[in-house]
Amino acid sequence: MVTNNLNASTVQFIKHICIFILVFQLIGCKTNNEGTYQISGTINGLDTGTISIVEWTGNGDEFIIDQTTIKDGTFSFSGKMLHSKPVNILINEVYGFSFFLEPEDIMITIDSFPKIEEEFTVLKPIIKGGIENQSYQSFSRTRDSIKALPRFKKIDKLIERYAVALKNNNEQEIYAIEETLNAIETEQYTLLHNTRKTFILNHPKAIAAPYVLLHEGDGMSTEVFTEEELEAMITNFDSSIAYSSDYKECVHNLEVIKKLAIGKTAPDFTLQNQSNIPVSLKDYRGKVVLLDFWTYWCAPCVDEFPYLKELYGNYKNKGFEIISISDDPDIDSWKKALTENNLPWTQCIIASDKETDVSRSYYIEALPTKYLIGKNGEILDKNPDRETLENILKSKLN
Length: 398
Known about the structure:
Elements: H1 8-33, E1 36-43, E2 49-56, E3 62-70, E4 74-80, E5 85-91, E6 95-101, E7 105-110, E8 121-122, E9 126-128, H2 131-147, H3 154-167, H4 171-202, H5 208-215, H6 227-235, H7 245-259, E10 270-273, E11 278-280, E12 288-294, H8 299-303, H9 305-315, E13 320-326, H10 331-341, E14 346-349, H11 356-361, E15 369-373, E16 379-382, H12 386-396
Parallel strand pairs: 1-7, 6-8, 12-13, 13-14
Antiparallel strand pairs: 1-4, 2-3, 2-5, 5-6, 7-9, 10-11, 10-14, 12-15, 15-16
Helix pairs in contact: 2-4, 3-4, 4-5, 5-7, 6-7
């Protein structure tokens, strides 16, 4: 037979060929499975209903990727996809949770379904399968274990006691609870903050990392992260996840934050004032300007008005101006608030989608937000406290 005449080197060559074919077939199988998600799940306590995989677009619109019905407490999804991405699962429109859609076999188990429908209930499922989901679940378990520590369980009770003390105007009790509450919350916040930062730095190839940076805790807040910290985390992301919308948003936000550093030129804008007259920041060159981002429903914003009135009265004749910018398109409620508070300085409103670029260019994360702008358009400070603000005004306005 021919095989009897094969020498050792020929046999070895054939073995190598066979191994190559086997590896090629395995790779081929892997390639065929890429881009296909297979999700199966069970819900204890809900026999029927509608369940959807939903993605939120950058402008806040809802896009349904897939939808199916729940039968006898079970459901399944199967479909094609290009890349892994964070999505939401919605059940009957009033229950839901976040997870990562991946080209993997994923099993979702909801052990106990709530009996009472609230406005919206966040569920805590058990998710098995998927690299991204396992990474994020590991982070979530650590986060939740910190919140469950006995010393942090006191927080809710302290808040209840604090509300009673405020109602009774018990100053001694108010002060004592504030001290205790601040100490406990600071400790918890520090642990959660460090947990988030460690996860992000240790998972540079996971799309869960930019997701956690954007959507967990205080997000990319410049009140909790320095520009250097944000840059270290974002530049640590691997280029393999550059397709992720969260990755792109992190990179974009960092670029905006860098442009808002002290000493940089403040972004110019043009908005309509309360008399429908265009107002541009560049028109105030030669004056020190306080930009005050607020809205009528923001109690801390409105609480600042008496102080701002006093400040404006003291410095308006020395080259100081305030431009308040309402970050809510409800014009009628805005004008009503202006009348009620009798504000004597320039008032503008972000009333259209195009004008929301002003909020983005100033990286408005919360309200109120204030920027102090110098005579040459340079940024002097962001959210200065009252003492710092007045010291800068005294210095710049002689």
